[in-house]
Hints:
Number of domains: 3
Strand content: 15-25%
CATH topology of the largest domain: Rossmann fold
Strand order of the largest sheet: 1-2-3-5-4-6-7-13-14
Distance between the termini: 49 Å
CATH superfamily of the largest domain: Alpha/Beta hydrolase fold, catalytic domain
Shape: globular
Largest sheet: 9 strands, mixed
Number of strands: 20
Amino acid sequence: xxxxxxxxxxxILLCSQAVVSAQTALPSESxxxxxxxxxxxxxxxxxxxxxxxxxPTVLSSALFVWTPLLKFRRDSIESLHIFCHSTITADVQxxxxxxxxxxxxxxxxxxxxxxxxxxxxxxxxxxxxxxxVAPDYEGYGATRTVPHPYLSERLTARQVIDAATYxxxxxxxxxxxxxxxxxxxxxxxxxxxxxxxxxAVSLATHRYIEEEGLADKLHFQGSLCGDGPYDLxxxxxxxxxxxxxxxxxxxxxxxxxxxxxxxxxxIVKGMFDSYPEMAQYGMExxxxxQLIDTGVLDxxxxxxxxxxxxxxxxxxxxxxxxDASDRHYTPEQMGELFESPEEGMLWGNLDKMFTPEAYEYxxxxxxxxxVPGEASGAFEAIHRALADNSLVTGWEPQHRxxxxxxxxxxxxxxxxxxxxxxxxxxxEGDLFRVNDTFSNGDxxxxxxxxxxxxxxxxxYAKCFNWICEGPSTVIDNxxxxxxxxxxxxxNGQWSDGWYTLDGRRLTTKPTAKGVYICNGRKVAxx
Length: 526
Protein backbone atom coordinates (compact mmCIF):
# COMPACT_ATOMS: atom_id res chain seq x y z
CA UNK A 1 0.00 0.00 0.00
CA UNK A 2 2.91 2.35 0.80
CA UNK A 3 4.34 1.88 -2.69
CA UNK A 4 0.94 2.60 -4.21
CA UNK A 5 0.69 5.85 -2.24
CA UNK A 6 4.17 6.86 -3.41
CA UNK A 7 3.18 6.12 -6.98
CA UNK A 8 0.01 8.21 -6.66
CA UNK A 9 1.93 11.14 -5.18
CA UNK A 10 4.28 11.05 -8.14
CA UNK A 11 1.45 11.06 -10.64
CA ILE A 12 -0.37 13.87 -8.80
CA LEU A 13 2.78 16.00 -8.95
CA LEU A 14 3.09 15.23 -12.65
CA CYS A 15 -0.42 16.41 -13.34
CA SER A 16 0.06 19.63 -11.39
CA GLN A 17 2.37 20.85 -14.15
CA ALA A 18 0.95 23.05 -16.88
CA VAL A 19 0.30 21.48 -20.24
CA VAL A 20 2.00 23.38 -23.04
CA SER A 21 -0.35 24.39 -25.83
CA ALA A 22 0.07 22.45 -29.03
CA GLN A 23 1.72 23.99 -32.07
CA THR A 24 1.91 22.78 -35.63
CA ALA A 25 5.01 20.60 -35.82
CA LEU A 26 7.42 20.06 -38.68
CA PRO A 27 9.90 17.19 -39.03
CA SER A 28 13.15 18.02 -37.27
CA GLU A 29 16.32 18.63 -39.23
CA SER A 30 18.44 18.06 -36.13
CA UNK A 31 18.17 16.85 -32.56
CA UNK A 32 17.19 19.40 -29.90
CA UNK A 33 18.90 19.01 -26.54
CA UNK A 34 16.40 18.74 -23.68
CA UNK A 35 18.59 17.95 -20.67
CA UNK A 36 21.91 16.50 -19.66
CA UNK A 37 22.95 14.43 -16.68
CA UNK A 38 25.91 12.29 -15.75
CA UNK A 39 26.50 9.93 -18.65
CA UNK A 40 23.30 10.77 -20.57
CA UNK A 41 22.09 13.53 -22.86
CA UNK A 42 18.38 13.75 -23.68
CA UNK A 43 17.22 15.10 -27.02
CA UNK A 44 13.83 15.58 -28.65
CA UNK A 45 12.85 15.48 -32.30
CA UNK A 46 9.77 15.51 -34.51
CA UNK A 47 9.37 12.94 -37.24
CA UNK A 48 6.99 12.19 -40.14
CA UNK A 49 4.57 9.29 -39.85
CA UNK A 50 0.97 8.28 -40.58
CA UNK A 51 -1.99 9.15 -38.34
CA UNK A 52 -4.93 7.03 -37.21
CA UNK A 53 -6.93 8.53 -40.09
CA UNK A 54 -4.30 7.41 -42.60
CA UNK A 55 -3.09 10.95 -43.26
CA PRO A 56 0.50 12.20 -43.00
CA THR A 57 1.33 13.54 -39.56
CA VAL A 58 4.31 14.70 -37.54
CA LEU A 59 4.88 13.07 -34.15
CA SER A 60 7.40 13.67 -31.38
CA SER A 61 9.96 11.48 -29.64
CA ALA A 62 12.73 11.59 -27.10
CA LEU A 63 16.22 10.23 -27.72
CA PHE A 64 18.51 9.34 -24.81
CA VAL A 65 22.23 9.06 -25.58
CA TRP A 66 25.15 7.59 -23.69
CA THR A 67 27.51 10.55 -23.34
CA PRO A 68 30.77 9.57 -21.58
CA LEU A 69 32.37 12.38 -19.63
CA LEU A 70 35.73 11.43 -21.10
CA LYS A 71 35.35 10.21 -24.65
CA PHE A 72 37.93 7.85 -26.06
CA ARG A 73 38.43 7.09 -29.73
CA ARG A 74 37.26 3.52 -29.28
CA ASP A 75 33.98 4.52 -27.62
CA SER A 76 30.92 3.74 -29.69
CA ILE A 77 27.18 3.17 -29.40
CA GLU A 78 26.62 -0.58 -29.23
CA SER A 79 22.82 -0.79 -29.15
CA LEU A 80 19.57 0.93 -29.97
CA HIS A 81 16.77 0.40 -27.46
CA ILE A 82 13.31 1.13 -28.85
CA PHE A 83 11.39 1.96 -25.68
CA CYS A 84 7.58 1.83 -25.70
CA HIS A 85 6.03 3.67 -22.77
CA SER A 86 3.21 2.40 -20.60
CA THR A 87 -0.35 3.76 -20.41
CA ILE A 88 -0.51 7.49 -19.80
CA THR A 89 -3.48 9.86 -19.84
CA ALA A 90 -1.72 13.13 -18.92
CA ASP A 91 0.43 14.80 -21.56
CA VAL A 92 3.13 15.70 -19.03
CA GLN A 93 3.86 11.98 -18.64
CA UNK A 94 5.15 11.65 -22.21
CA UNK A 95 8.83 10.76 -22.81
CA UNK A 96 9.61 14.27 -24.10
CA UNK A 97 8.39 15.89 -20.88
CA UNK A 98 10.53 18.37 -18.99
CA UNK A 99 9.10 17.08 -15.70
CA UNK A 100 11.71 14.92 -14.01
CA UNK A 101 9.43 12.80 -11.82
CA UNK A 102 8.43 10.24 -14.44
CA UNK A 103 9.45 6.76 -13.31
CA UNK A 104 10.07 5.64 -16.87
CA UNK A 105 12.07 8.72 -17.73
CA UNK A 106 14.20 8.14 -14.64
CA UNK A 107 14.93 4.66 -15.97
CA UNK A 108 15.77 5.94 -19.43
CA UNK A 109 18.15 8.56 -18.05
CA UNK A 110 19.83 5.99 -15.83
CA UNK A 111 20.37 3.23 -18.38
CA UNK A 112 22.86 4.81 -20.82
CA UNK A 113 26.40 4.44 -19.53
CA UNK A 114 25.31 2.74 -16.34
CA UNK A 115 28.18 1.04 -14.49
CA UNK A 116 27.22 -2.54 -13.73
CA UNK A 117 30.57 -3.40 -12.22
CA UNK A 118 31.71 -6.94 -12.89
CA UNK A 119 28.27 -8.27 -13.87
CA UNK A 120 28.64 -9.70 -17.34
CA UNK A 121 30.80 -6.89 -18.68
CA UNK A 122 30.19 -7.68 -22.33
CA UNK A 123 26.44 -7.49 -21.86
CA UNK A 124 26.74 -4.31 -19.79
CA UNK A 125 28.56 -2.68 -22.69
CA UNK A 126 26.00 -3.34 -25.37
CA UNK A 127 23.09 -2.63 -23.03
CA UNK A 128 24.36 0.61 -21.49
CA UNK A 129 26.44 2.05 -24.33
CA UNK A 130 23.25 2.86 -26.13
CA UNK A 131 20.82 5.30 -27.58
CA UNK A 132 17.17 4.97 -26.59
CA VAL A 133 14.37 6.16 -28.84
CA ALA A 134 11.17 6.69 -26.82
CA PRO A 135 8.24 8.02 -28.91
CA ASP A 136 5.41 10.01 -27.32
CA TYR A 137 2.76 8.14 -29.42
CA GLU A 138 0.07 9.89 -31.43
CA GLY A 139 -2.10 12.01 -29.15
CA TYR A 140 0.75 13.25 -26.97
CA GLY A 141 3.55 15.74 -27.40
CA ALA A 142 3.40 17.29 -30.88
CA THR A 143 -0.11 15.87 -31.45
CA ARG A 144 -1.57 16.38 -27.97
CA THR A 145 -4.75 17.94 -29.37
CA VAL A 146 -5.84 14.79 -31.23
CA PRO A 147 -7.11 11.53 -29.68
CA HIS A 148 -4.63 8.84 -28.73
CA PRO A 149 -5.54 5.59 -30.57
CA TYR A 150 -5.09 3.48 -27.45
CA LEU A 151 -3.96 -0.12 -28.12
CA SER A 152 -4.28 0.27 -31.90
CA GLU A 153 -1.27 -2.00 -32.24
CA ARG A 154 -0.41 -1.99 -35.94
CA LEU A 155 -0.70 1.77 -36.16
CA THR A 156 1.36 2.43 -33.03
CA ALA A 157 4.03 -0.06 -34.11
CA ARG A 158 4.36 1.73 -37.47
CA GLN A 159 4.68 5.07 -35.70
CA VAL A 160 7.27 3.70 -33.26
CA ILE A 161 9.45 2.34 -36.07
CA ASP A 162 9.17 5.64 -37.94
CA ALA A 163 10.55 7.28 -34.79
CA ALA A 164 13.39 4.76 -34.49
CA THR A 165 14.57 5.07 -38.09
CA TYR A 166 14.24 8.86 -38.23
CA UNK A 167 15.88 9.32 -34.83
CA UNK A 168 18.75 7.05 -35.80
CA UNK A 169 19.38 9.11 -38.93
CA UNK A 170 19.33 12.36 -36.93
CA UNK A 171 21.73 10.91 -34.39
CA UNK A 172 24.22 9.92 -37.06
CA UNK A 173 23.96 13.45 -38.43
CA UNK A 174 24.49 14.87 -34.93
CA UNK A 175 27.65 12.77 -34.44
CA UNK A 176 29.26 14.53 -37.39
CA UNK A 177 28.73 17.92 -35.70
CA UNK A 178 29.29 16.93 -32.08
CA UNK A 179 32.59 15.20 -31.49
CA UNK A 180 31.63 14.38 -27.88
CA UNK A 181 28.99 11.92 -29.05
CA UNK A 182 30.14 8.37 -29.80
CA UNK A 183 29.40 7.00 -33.29
CA UNK A 184 27.40 3.85 -33.96
CA UNK A 185 29.44 0.66 -33.77
CA UNK A 186 29.41 -1.29 -37.01
CA UNK A 187 27.76 -4.32 -35.39
CA UNK A 188 25.33 -2.44 -33.14
CA UNK A 189 22.17 -4.27 -32.01
CA UNK A 190 18.60 -3.20 -31.42
CA UNK A 191 15.87 -4.33 -29.03
CA UNK A 192 12.29 -3.32 -28.28
CA UNK A 193 11.13 -3.10 -24.67
CA UNK A 194 8.25 -1.85 -22.58
CA UNK A 195 5.77 -2.56 -19.81
CA UNK A 196 1.93 -2.66 -19.80
CA UNK A 197 0.74 -0.82 -22.91
CA UNK A 198 4.44 -0.55 -23.68
CA UNK A 199 4.81 -4.32 -23.40
CA ALA A 200 2.11 -4.81 -26.02
CA VAL A 201 3.53 -2.08 -28.25
CA SER A 202 6.98 -3.66 -27.90
CA LEU A 203 5.61 -6.97 -29.16
CA ALA A 204 3.65 -5.24 -31.93
CA THR A 205 6.80 -3.40 -32.99
CA HIS A 206 8.69 -6.70 -32.96
CA ARG A 207 6.06 -8.11 -35.31
CA TYR A 208 6.15 -5.02 -37.54
CA ILE A 209 9.94 -5.22 -37.90
CA GLU A 210 9.73 -8.82 -39.05
CA GLU A 211 6.71 -8.40 -41.32
CA GLU A 212 8.21 -5.35 -43.05
CA GLY A 213 11.64 -6.95 -43.48
CA LEU A 214 13.41 -4.36 -41.29
CA ALA A 215 15.38 -6.76 -39.08
CA ASP A 216 18.64 -6.39 -41.01
CA LYS A 217 18.36 -2.61 -41.34
CA LEU A 218 17.78 -2.27 -37.60
CA HIS A 219 20.21 -5.04 -36.56
CA PHE A 220 17.23 -6.38 -34.64
CA GLN A 221 17.77 -8.97 -31.89
CA GLY A 222 14.48 -9.32 -30.01
CA SER A 223 12.18 -7.94 -27.32
CA LEU A 224 11.58 -7.60 -23.58
CA CYS A 225 7.84 -7.38 -22.92
CA GLY A 226 6.38 -6.85 -19.46
CA ASP A 227 2.73 -7.52 -18.49
CA GLY A 228 1.33 -6.47 -21.84
CA PRO A 229 -2.29 -6.83 -23.05
CA TYR A 230 -1.45 -8.92 -26.11
CA ASP A 231 -4.96 -10.39 -26.21
CA LEU A 232 -7.75 -7.97 -25.24
CA UNK A 233 -10.45 -10.64 -25.50
CA UNK A 234 -8.60 -12.85 -23.01
CA UNK A 235 -8.22 -9.83 -20.74
CA UNK A 236 -11.94 -9.07 -20.94
CA UNK A 237 -12.88 -12.68 -20.21
CA UNK A 238 -10.66 -12.58 -17.10
CA UNK A 239 -12.54 -9.55 -15.77
CA UNK A 240 -15.82 -11.36 -16.28
CA UNK A 241 -14.91 -14.86 -15.08
CA UNK A 242 -12.02 -14.80 -12.59
CA UNK A 243 -12.90 -15.44 -8.96
CA UNK A 244 -9.41 -14.77 -7.59
CA UNK A 245 -8.00 -18.26 -8.12
CA UNK A 246 -6.66 -18.15 -11.69
CA UNK A 247 -3.09 -19.23 -12.54
CA UNK A 248 -2.60 -21.17 -9.27
CA UNK A 249 -2.37 -18.01 -7.16
CA UNK A 250 -4.86 -16.16 -4.98
CA UNK A 251 -5.81 -12.54 -5.61
CA UNK A 252 -8.53 -10.17 -4.43
CA UNK A 253 -10.20 -10.19 -7.84
CA UNK A 254 -13.86 -11.21 -8.17
CA UNK A 255 -16.08 -11.98 -11.12
CA UNK A 256 -17.34 -8.89 -12.94
CA UNK A 257 -14.86 -6.53 -11.26
CA UNK A 258 -12.16 -4.38 -12.83
CA UNK A 259 -9.53 -3.13 -10.41
CA UNK A 260 -8.38 -0.26 -12.66
CA UNK A 261 -11.70 1.11 -13.97
CA UNK A 262 -10.19 3.69 -16.34
CA UNK A 263 -9.10 0.80 -18.57
CA UNK A 264 -12.70 0.29 -19.80
CA UNK A 265 -13.28 3.77 -21.31
CA UNK A 266 -9.68 3.85 -22.54
CA ILE A 267 -10.08 0.64 -24.53
CA VAL A 268 -13.54 1.45 -25.90
CA LYS A 269 -12.46 4.97 -26.84
CA GLY A 270 -9.25 3.64 -28.40
CA MET A 271 -11.24 1.36 -30.68
CA PHE A 272 -13.52 4.27 -31.65
CA ASP A 273 -10.56 6.47 -32.49
CA SER A 274 -8.96 3.97 -34.84
CA TYR A 275 -11.59 1.60 -36.32
CA PRO A 276 -13.93 2.87 -39.10
CA GLU A 277 -16.39 -0.01 -38.50
CA MET A 278 -17.31 1.60 -35.19
CA ALA A 279 -17.98 5.06 -36.63
CA GLN A 280 -21.72 4.43 -37.03
CA TYR A 281 -22.11 3.69 -33.34
CA GLY A 282 -21.70 5.85 -30.26
CA MET A 283 -19.98 5.52 -26.91
CA GLU A 284 -23.45 5.29 -25.38
CA UNK A 285 -23.90 1.95 -27.17
CA UNK A 286 -21.17 0.50 -24.94
CA UNK A 287 -20.68 2.64 -21.84
CA UNK A 288 -23.48 3.31 -19.38
CA UNK A 289 -24.91 6.82 -19.15
CA GLN A 290 -23.82 6.96 -15.53
CA LEU A 291 -20.18 6.23 -16.44
CA ILE A 292 -20.29 8.81 -19.23
CA ASP A 293 -21.83 11.34 -16.84
CA THR A 294 -18.80 11.09 -14.56
CA GLY A 295 -16.92 13.11 -17.19
CA VAL A 296 -14.25 10.48 -17.82
CA LEU A 297 -14.31 10.83 -21.61
CA ASP A 298 -13.66 14.57 -21.32
CA UNK A 299 -10.92 13.91 -18.76
CA UNK A 300 -9.18 11.55 -21.16
CA UNK A 301 -9.51 13.99 -24.06
CA UNK A 302 -8.13 16.87 -22.00
CA UNK A 303 -4.78 15.09 -21.40
CA UNK A 304 -4.61 16.91 -18.03
CA UNK A 305 -5.14 14.00 -15.66
CA UNK A 306 -3.17 10.82 -15.15
CA UNK A 307 -4.88 7.55 -14.22
CA UNK A 308 -4.28 8.09 -10.50
CA UNK A 309 -5.91 11.52 -10.62
CA UNK A 310 -8.89 10.14 -12.56
CA UNK A 311 -9.32 7.47 -9.91
CA UNK A 312 -9.26 10.15 -7.20
CA UNK A 313 -11.96 12.20 -8.94
CA UNK A 314 -14.12 9.11 -9.23
CA UNK A 315 -13.51 8.33 -5.57
CA UNK A 316 -14.74 11.82 -4.64
CA UNK A 317 -17.92 11.19 -6.66
CA UNK A 318 -18.38 7.92 -4.81
CA UNK A 319 -18.22 9.78 -1.51
CA UNK A 320 -20.29 12.86 -2.43
CA UNK A 321 -22.56 11.82 -5.30
CA UNK A 322 -22.69 13.33 -8.78
CA ASP A 323 -24.70 16.01 -10.56
CA ALA A 324 -24.55 15.81 -14.38
CA SER A 325 -26.89 17.95 -16.51
CA ASP A 326 -30.37 17.13 -15.20
CA ARG A 327 -29.30 13.84 -13.65
CA HIS A 328 -28.35 13.33 -10.03
CA TYR A 329 -26.63 10.27 -8.60
CA THR A 330 -26.52 9.72 -4.85
CA PRO A 331 -23.47 8.21 -3.15
CA GLU A 332 -25.48 4.99 -2.90
CA GLN A 333 -26.07 5.01 -6.67
CA MET A 334 -22.40 5.75 -7.29
CA GLY A 335 -21.70 2.77 -5.04
CA GLU A 336 -23.39 0.57 -7.63
CA LEU A 337 -20.91 1.79 -10.25
CA PHE A 338 -17.81 1.80 -8.06
CA GLU A 339 -16.75 0.18 -4.82
CA SER A 340 -13.89 0.91 -2.48
CA PRO A 341 -12.30 -2.18 -0.87
CA GLU A 342 -9.85 0.10 0.98
CA GLU A 343 -9.88 3.82 1.72
CA GLY A 344 -8.85 5.68 -1.43
CA MET A 345 -8.95 2.56 -3.60
CA LEU A 346 -11.51 2.27 -6.39
CA TRP A 347 -12.81 -0.74 -8.33
CA GLY A 348 -15.45 -0.80 -11.03
CA ASN A 349 -18.49 -3.03 -11.46
CA LEU A 350 -18.58 -4.01 -15.12
CA ASP A 351 -22.33 -4.61 -15.19
CA LYS A 352 -22.78 -0.90 -14.36
CA MET A 353 -19.89 0.46 -16.44
CA PHE A 354 -21.22 -1.13 -19.63
CA THR A 355 -24.73 -0.77 -20.98
CA PRO A 356 -26.98 -3.76 -20.13
CA GLU A 357 -26.85 -4.90 -23.77
CA ALA A 358 -23.07 -4.64 -23.97
CA TYR A 359 -22.62 -6.45 -20.67
CA GLU A 360 -24.96 -9.21 -21.79
CA TYR A 361 -22.90 -9.68 -24.95
CA UNK A 362 -19.50 -9.83 -23.22
CA UNK A 363 -20.86 -12.06 -20.44
CA UNK A 364 -21.86 -14.77 -22.92
CA UNK A 365 -18.73 -16.86 -23.47
CA UNK A 366 -20.23 -18.43 -26.60
CA UNK A 367 -19.91 -15.11 -28.39
CA UNK A 368 -16.14 -15.51 -28.20
CA UNK A 369 -15.90 -18.94 -29.78
CA UNK A 370 -15.15 -17.20 -33.08
CA VAL A 371 -14.62 -13.68 -34.37
CA PRO A 372 -17.68 -12.32 -36.23
CA GLY A 373 -17.24 -12.34 -39.98
CA GLU A 374 -18.76 -8.88 -40.28
CA ALA A 375 -19.84 -6.00 -38.09
CA SER A 376 -23.57 -6.68 -38.08
CA GLY A 377 -24.08 -4.63 -34.93
CA ALA A 378 -22.34 -2.48 -32.34
CA PHE A 379 -21.04 -5.42 -30.31
CA GLU A 380 -19.80 -7.37 -33.30
CA ALA A 381 -17.97 -4.22 -34.41
CA ILE A 382 -16.02 -3.80 -31.19
CA HIS A 383 -15.49 -7.57 -30.98
CA ARG A 384 -13.79 -7.44 -34.38
CA ALA A 385 -11.74 -4.41 -33.36
CA LEU A 386 -10.51 -6.09 -30.18
CA ALA A 387 -9.66 -9.28 -32.06
CA ASP A 388 -7.82 -7.36 -34.76
CA ASN A 389 -5.50 -5.97 -32.09
CA SER A 390 -4.48 -9.43 -30.96
CA LEU A 391 -0.71 -9.96 -30.99
CA VAL A 392 -1.13 -13.65 -30.32
CA THR A 393 -2.04 -15.10 -33.70
CA GLY A 394 -1.38 -14.30 -37.33
CA TRP A 395 2.40 -14.34 -37.27
CA GLU A 396 5.37 -16.55 -36.42
CA PRO A 397 8.14 -14.69 -34.54
CA GLN A 398 11.64 -15.01 -35.92
CA HIS A 399 13.54 -13.34 -33.07
CA ARG A 400 13.52 -14.09 -29.39
CA UNK A 401 11.07 -12.62 -26.90
CA UNK A 402 11.63 -12.40 -23.14
CA UNK A 403 8.28 -12.01 -21.39
CA UNK A 404 7.83 -10.77 -17.82
CA UNK A 405 4.44 -11.40 -16.21
CA UNK A 406 3.18 -11.33 -12.66
CA UNK A 407 0.60 -14.03 -11.99
CA UNK A 408 -1.02 -11.66 -9.48
CA UNK A 409 -1.65 -8.91 -12.03
CA UNK A 410 -5.39 -8.18 -11.88
CA UNK A 411 -5.27 -5.48 -14.60
CA UNK A 412 -3.34 -7.28 -17.36
CA UNK A 413 -3.78 -10.92 -16.40
CA UNK A 414 -1.22 -13.67 -16.87
CA UNK A 415 -3.57 -15.22 -19.44
CA UNK A 416 -2.15 -12.80 -21.99
CA UNK A 417 1.13 -14.69 -21.91
CA UNK A 418 -0.65 -18.05 -21.89
CA UNK A 419 -2.60 -17.08 -25.02
CA UNK A 420 0.65 -16.30 -26.80
CA UNK A 421 2.25 -19.51 -25.56
CA UNK A 422 -0.67 -21.66 -26.67
CA UNK A 423 -0.56 -20.15 -30.15
CA UNK A 424 3.18 -20.81 -30.49
CA UNK A 425 3.72 -23.85 -28.29
CA UNK A 426 6.59 -25.15 -30.42
CA UNK A 427 8.76 -22.18 -29.46
CA GLU A 428 8.47 -21.98 -25.67
CA GLY A 429 11.87 -22.01 -24.03
CA ASP A 430 13.55 -21.60 -27.38
CA LEU A 431 11.99 -18.73 -29.28
CA PHE A 432 10.36 -17.15 -26.24
CA ARG A 433 10.26 -17.63 -22.49
CA VAL A 434 8.67 -16.05 -19.44
CA ASN A 435 9.88 -14.82 -16.07
CA ASP A 436 6.78 -15.03 -13.86
CA THR A 437 8.60 -14.69 -10.54
CA PHE A 438 10.14 -11.21 -10.98
CA SER A 439 7.23 -9.76 -8.98
CA ASN A 440 4.41 -10.92 -6.72
CA GLY A 441 2.63 -7.61 -7.09
CA ASP A 442 -0.42 -6.33 -8.91
CA UNK A 443 -0.02 -4.28 -12.08
CA UNK A 444 1.43 -1.05 -10.68
CA UNK A 445 3.81 -2.74 -8.24
CA UNK A 446 4.88 -5.23 -10.90
CA UNK A 447 5.61 -2.28 -13.19
CA UNK A 448 7.85 -0.70 -10.57
CA UNK A 449 9.64 -4.03 -10.13
CA UNK A 450 10.10 -4.32 -13.91
CA UNK A 451 11.69 -0.88 -14.16
CA UNK A 452 13.82 -1.23 -11.03
CA UNK A 453 15.20 -4.58 -12.13
CA UNK A 454 16.09 -3.21 -15.54
CA UNK A 455 17.89 -0.27 -13.96
CA UNK A 456 19.71 -2.35 -11.36
CA UNK A 457 20.45 -5.10 -13.87
CA UNK A 458 19.67 -7.89 -11.38
CA UNK A 459 18.47 -10.40 -13.95
CA TYR A 460 18.28 -8.60 -17.27
CA ALA A 461 21.90 -9.18 -18.30
CA LYS A 462 21.20 -12.84 -18.92
CA CYS A 463 17.99 -11.89 -20.76
CA PHE A 464 19.85 -9.70 -23.23
CA ASN A 465 22.47 -12.41 -23.69
CA TRP A 466 19.78 -15.04 -24.29
CA ILE A 467 18.01 -12.84 -26.84
CA CYS A 468 21.23 -12.22 -28.75
CA GLU A 469 22.05 -15.90 -28.92
CA GLY A 470 19.12 -16.27 -31.32
CA PRO A 471 16.65 -19.17 -31.56
CA SER A 472 18.00 -22.69 -31.80
CA THR A 473 17.16 -24.76 -34.85
CA VAL A 474 14.88 -27.45 -33.44
CA ILE A 475 11.10 -27.30 -33.77
CA ASP A 476 10.30 -29.32 -30.66
CA ASN A 477 6.81 -30.47 -31.57
CA UNK A 478 7.50 -31.43 -35.18
CA UNK A 479 8.51 -35.01 -35.88
CA UNK A 480 10.62 -35.31 -39.00
CA UNK A 481 9.57 -38.14 -41.36
CA UNK A 482 11.88 -40.90 -42.42
CA UNK A 483 12.53 -39.27 -45.79
CA UNK A 484 13.96 -36.24 -43.98
CA UNK A 485 11.81 -33.96 -46.10
CA UNK A 486 10.57 -30.44 -45.41
CA UNK A 487 7.54 -29.63 -43.25
CA UNK A 488 5.33 -26.70 -44.21
CA UNK A 489 3.47 -25.19 -41.26
CA UNK A 490 0.85 -23.86 -43.68
CA ASN A 491 -0.47 -27.06 -45.27
CA GLY A 492 0.96 -29.64 -42.86
CA GLN A 493 2.77 -31.47 -45.67
CA TRP A 494 6.37 -32.60 -46.04
CA SER A 495 8.41 -31.80 -49.13
CA ASP A 496 11.95 -30.89 -50.12
CA GLY A 497 13.58 -27.46 -50.00
CA TRP A 498 13.76 -24.31 -47.91
CA TYR A 499 10.69 -22.48 -46.63
CA THR A 500 9.93 -19.20 -44.92
CA LEU A 501 8.14 -19.38 -41.57
CA ASP A 502 4.81 -18.59 -43.25
CA GLY A 503 5.17 -21.59 -45.56
CA ARG A 504 6.48 -19.99 -48.79
CA ARG A 505 8.85 -22.34 -50.62
CA LEU A 506 12.17 -20.88 -51.78
CA THR A 507 13.93 -22.03 -54.92
CA THR A 508 17.38 -22.03 -53.31
CA LYS A 509 18.98 -21.74 -49.92
CA PRO A 510 18.27 -18.19 -48.69
CA THR A 511 21.07 -15.66 -48.44
CA ALA A 512 19.16 -12.99 -46.52
CA LYS A 513 19.50 -13.08 -42.74
CA GLY A 514 16.53 -14.58 -40.93
CA VAL A 515 14.98 -17.79 -39.64
CA TYR A 516 13.82 -20.43 -42.13
CA ILE A 517 12.60 -24.03 -42.08
CA CYS A 518 14.72 -26.77 -43.62
CA ASN A 519 14.40 -30.51 -43.02
CA GLY A 520 11.90 -29.99 -40.26
CA ARG A 521 14.17 -27.67 -38.31
CA LYS A 522 14.34 -23.94 -37.83
CA VAL A 523 17.61 -22.67 -39.26
CA ALA A 524 18.97 -19.20 -38.57
CA UNK A 525 20.79 -17.79 -41.60
CA UNK A 526 23.34 -15.20 -40.51
